[in-house]
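Chain X:
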Amino acid sequence: MEEGNWPCVAIERRQKGSLVEQIVTAISAMVGSKELRVGTKMPSVRQFAKCNGVSTFTVVEAYDRLVTLGLLSSRRGSGYFVARQELPATLLPAALHIIPNAIDALTPDLYSGVSEALPVGAGWLPPEWYGEDTILDAVRQAMRIPANRLRGYGHPLGFPTLRQQMAATLSEELFPVEAEQILLTHGATHAFDLVLRTLTKPGDTVFVEDPGYSNLLSLIRHHGCVAVGIPRGEHGLDLDALARQAAQTQPKLMFVNTVLQNPLGTSLSVAQAHRLLALAEQFDFWLVEDDIYRELAPRGEASLAAMDGLRRVIRVGSFSKTLSPVLRVGSICASSSLIPELLRVKMLAGLTTSEINERAVYHAITARPYRRMVDKLVTQLDAGRERAMASLREVGMTLLARPRGGMFVSAGWHDAPTAEWNGKIIADQALKHGILLSPCDFFMLRAPESIWFRFNVAYADHPQLQTFLRRICRQ
C-alpha cells in the first residue's frame, strides 16, 4: 500500500474507548489481516492526523503504543514501518474490542482511596501508617487561617513560611537554597507538568527511566514530546545506552528517580550520579530529579541537586509519601533564573496553589512528633517489605530488584502463566476479583520481556492476593 493511498480509519467519537485505542485497534486489525504487510511505511504523524481528523498528539501516542506492542518500528528521519505480521496475544481478534472496566495507568480507583478493591497496586499507604493524629491536628491548625488571608489567592510561589522552612531544612541536609528558589505545586505530577510546559515544545525528545513512573509517560506524550526510555535495572541506569541515545536524539531533558526509584525501589550510586551529570553537561540537557522518596531512604544517598547546585538540575519534591497524598503539596527547587518562568507558567495554568493545604503541611512538619512519625513509617515499611518479598517468593514470583527501601516491591514470572496472558490481562482479571494491580505495562516503553507487577508493601502479603496469584499460576 502506498503511503499516499492510506485509507482513513473510521473514528467514532461517541464510541466507548479513547481515540488512541480506536487507532491502535484499527491498525492492529489491518496488520492481522495482512492489509498492512511487514515493511509498509506508515503515513507521517501529520498526514495521519489530517486524514483522520485527530490531533498529532493522538497519533504520536497511538504510534508509540504500536511500537511498544512490536507492530511498528520507528526509524529516525524515516518514519514508522510495519515491523511484524502476527498479533500479540492482547490484540488477537477476540480481544480487539475495548474491555469494559479494564484497568489502565489512569484508572481512578488507583488514586481515589475509596474503592473497595484491595489496593495492591496503589501509590498510597493505609492512613494508620501515617501519623493520623499529627496530620489531623495540622489540618485543624491550618483552618485557623487569619481572616485577612481569605481575601487573596495566596502567594503565587506558595505559602512563604513553608518555603522558608523547606529552604532551611534542605540547606542543612542537602544543598544551599533560598526560599525564593522554591515553587510550591499541587503535588509532584503538577511539578512535572509545569517543567514540561516551561522547557519543552511538541516534538522535543524527553528521556525517562524504563521502567519508570507511569503517569509521567502519559504526561510527556500529552505535551507532544517524544519519550525515549533509558533502561534501568537493579544496578541503576544503563548510562552507555543513555550516551548513545543522547548523541542520536539531542534530548531536552531527562526525568530521573535518584533515590528509591518507582517501581524498582533502587537508588543510583554516587558514581552513577556523577556520570549522569557529566552526560547532561556534555549533551546539554536538563535533569529533573524526582526526589519524593528521599525522607524514606537511608541518609547519605546520592543527590543530583546537591552535586550540581541547581545549575542543570531541577529538584521535584512532595509530602505525599510522608504525610498524606490528600494534601497535594509538592515543590520545585530550581535556579534563580529559571524560577520566574516556572512561576509565570504556574500562574497561567492555575494562578496559585492552596494556602490552606500548604499551611497544614507546615504545621505537620514543624510539629514535635514529625521526625518520630517518619522514623516509625520507615520501620513499618522495612517490615512490610520483608513480608512482601517473602510472600511473593512463596507463590513462585521472582524479584526484579531488591529495593533499598520505600513503598514498592516489583516481582513477576520469567515465563507467562499461559501463553495468551500478559500483565494487563492479569490485572483486568484481578480487578474482577476485587484486587487493584499495577502491571509492568504501566511502567515501560519497551515491550516487557516478562510479566511483572509493582506491589505496595502494605498489601502484598494479604491472603486475598496470595489466593489470586496461586490461582493464576495454576492456569
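Chain Y:
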Amino acid sequence: MTLRLKVGRKGYLILPKAIREAVGIEEGDEVLVEVGDGIILRPVKGRVDADKLRDALRRHLENLKEIEGRKEPKPGELARSYLEEEFENEGIY
C-alpha cells in the first residue's frame, strides 16, 4: 500500500488517523526512519498488522462515502491532491 503525503512547514508529515490507529501510533510515540533507496517509517513498538490496517482504511473509505454532498472524482482529478488536505478541509485534524 502506498500513500501520497505532502510535507508541511518545518518538514512535518501528517499520518492519517486511520493509519495511526491501525498501527497503534499515538501522540508522543517514536517511529524509526530507515533511509536507503527511499524512506521507510516504522513504529518502534510492535509490528504493523496489515489486515488491521486494511480494515481501518476500508472503514475510513466507508465513512467518506457517507459524507453528504460528496461527489466521486473524475479520473486524474485528484492527481495534485494530498491526503492530509482532505482531513484539514473537513476539520478532522
